[in-house]
Every structure is written in structure tokens, then in C-alpha cells.
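Quick one: structure for this chain?
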Amino acid sequence: MTTEADVAVAPGAAAAVGDVPAVQPLPRRQDGVSVRQLNGDLLLVEVRGQRFLTQAECPHRKGRLLFGYVNDRKLRITCPLHHSTFELTTGDQVSGPVCGSLKVTPLTGDGLPYPLR
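Got it. Here's what it folds into:
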């Protein structure tokens, strides 16, 4: 079984099936959103039963998205530094200073990743 410490994906590389930790419940905040740091480069975000593997740092100024805001209705994550906001389903930037897309991998129901976008 892969542990969180075993997960390591080079920046810009696709996550392989063996790189994703076993599917297990994540600790939940009161709003039903879970965010877990897998290593220095990746976050696992769970919201409304959907799971997303994302890069841990905002592409703008490397803000730590672990401390960002997750909008569970719009499926978006906002950087705590300069408020850049990204779609969790696509990684597309929707607001904030221009910085490009966030690398996101939506996970299927069985925990297997779709290709990194």
C-alpha cells in the first residue's frame, strides 16, 4: 500500500496509478471539505464526494494552497496570498493576478487518476 510519504510526482509529470494513496476517508472540516498535503508538491482535495490531486503551490507566487479557501459549491480553490482562484475540475484560473493554470488531476470513483491537465 502506498503511503503519503511514498507519493512523489515530478512537477509537470502525470501521476501514475501507483502514486495515488489508497482511497480512505479524509479528515473533514465543518463545511465538508477536506484538504491534505501529500508531500511538498501535491495536495489531495475532497469536496462533495469528488477528489482532486493538485499542485500544492499557486503558480502566481507559490502561495501554499493548503491554507487556501475551497468553495464547495463552485468547486474552486483560492490562494491565501493574492487570491488567485482556480477551477478544481480543470485547473483553469478564474480570478486574481494572471499566472496560468493550476495542475489538477480529478480522481475517479475508484481513486484512479484521470490524466494530469
